Amino acid sequence: MTKDLIKDMLKYIPAKIIPAIIGLISIPIITRLFSPADYGNYILVLSTVTVLATLVGWLGMSIIRFYPTYERDEKLDIFYSTVIKWLFISVFGSSILFLVVLLISKNYISENLYHLMLIGIGVFVCLSFFQTLLDFLRSKCMVSWYTNFSVWKSITAVGLGLMLIIIFKFGIGGLLLGIIISIVLVFPWLWRKAVGKFPPFRNSFSLLLSREMAAYGFPLVIGNLAAWILSLSDRYVLEFFRGAQEVGIYSASYAIGEHSILLITSLFLLASGPLSIHIWEEEGEERSKIFITKLTRYFLLLCIPVVAGVSVLAEPILDIFTGQEYLVGYSILPFVAGSIFFLGLSQRFGMGLTFYKKTGYIMWSLIISGSVNLGLNFIFIPKYGYVAAAVTTFIGYIIMLLLMIYFSRKIFVWNFPFKTLGKCSVASIMMGTGVYFLVNNLYFSTFVSLILGILAGIVIYSVLIFIFREILPEEKEEIKYFVQKYVFKKNS
């Protein structure tokens, strides 16, 4: 169980670490090529694409949940045909709806933003098909192919986008066109790997499966729309009250803080999602509880020190990764990192709800927390700007976590690793304190000081965790096994 989790996480690492690296590398380039106002408009388009993607996201979630069942019953032809038909209906229906809304609102937004939004429709269509096909690969545990396609998209989208900007003078819209071209180039190959041998437009169509997917997925769609309010709506409130300049500053800082910990939370979600469903279906409730407890331990061990590190190194991080116009946003990085941490912890409690298909609880958790966040945005953003946006998002994620805990414990109770939480928190506080004083007393360049601070943090935290005896003997053996097998290529 644990070995399967670690093995899949190792395979998923390139799919997350390479896009994260590309994202971090591209931010200083983009923020030096474009003003915060231009960058802010670009982020507003991506945020809108995210909203549209939630209308299709019910399919991906349903694929992960129901694929093992239909594979077991040897009914994959019906499964593929039903899902693909709904994919076409959802994508093109959402695109037409957004185009109508965009035409109506044309006179109320800037011309630059309007043209970027038109390109954004194409981005939405391509990303929706791309992500749904990737979900098929995830459900089939084709981790290597998932990784290959994800890495391709992350590298070529940014590369082609920058080429269009620098060589062909496309402006910031070139980044959006780069995403479209990147996906179009690889789409036929991805389709063959994901659903190639199953004719998607055959007459096989299951009304029963459609109902199951709708009952399971639609509450999550509503919940994800609320999650969008929680995580992205502040950009629109900032645009309305403070202008695109603050949207750009806030978004650049948010992206850097988010990338720092989202890599880890995404790895846990990608690797544990299909595996947890297989354990639930094949081994039952007790084994699932043990799995989630272990999963949460590992999550705490890895994520808490990252939050502490980002918090104490916020200013040098932003100094390196953005232009000078964006540097003032460093103060929000601790709130961003903390928000993503609470999101990842909420996902651990949400797993029990997905086992029992009680996605309505997830929906209400997101609706309530998103509504509170949106209300706080309208109260505080007009006066305090992007700092208020970060703080209210942080509060919203705390509320979401508390609600997920409450609802989850009603139907699926597992042992939360409180001892691990305490030890990791103490070790991270000690590590963060040491790193803060080290970095602020060095006389090297910002880049060198940051690298030394990161290395010192890793060493200090690792030593403290071993001193606190948080790594169990069997986990040491598992670590040794994977180092020998995957690093030194030895057979155990």
- The proportion of residues in beta strands is under 5%
Helix content: over 70%
Q: Secondary-structure element order, as H and E?
A: HHHHHHHHHHHHHHHHHH
Q: Spans of 5+ residues with little confidence (pLDDT < 50)?
A: none
Radius of gyration, Cα only, in angstroms? 22 Å
| Total beta strand runs | 0
Number of helices: 18
Q: Biggest sheet, open or closed, and with what strands and sense?
A: none
Classify the secondary structure makeup into a structural class: mainly alpha
Distance between the termini: 17 Å
Shape: globular
Short description:
Helices cover 85% and strands 0% of the residues.
Can you offer a commentary on this structure?
This protein has 492 residues and is an all-alpha fold. It has 2 domains: 2-416, no CATH class; 419-492, no CATH class. The protein is 85% helix and 0% strand. The protein contains 18 helices and no strands. The chain has helices spanning 2-33, 36-54, 57-72, 76-104, 111-139, 143-166, 173-195, 207-231, 233-241, 244-283, 285-312, 314-321, 333-355, 359-384, 386-411, 418-439, 446-467, 473-487. Helix 3 packs antiparallel against helix 8 (207-231) and helix 9 runs parallel beside helix 14. The longest helix is centred in the middle third of the chain and has 40 residues, at 244-283.
Tags for this entry?
mainly alpha; 2 domains; 18 helices; 85% helix; globular
Q: What secondary-structure arrangement, pairings included, does this model have?
A:
Blueprint: H1 2-33, H2 36-54, H3 57-72, H4 76-104, H5 111-139, H6 143-166, H7 173-195, H8 207-231, H9 233-241, H10 244-283, H11 285-312, H12 314-321, H13 333-355, H14 359-384, H15 386-411, H16 418-439, H17 446-467, H18 473-487
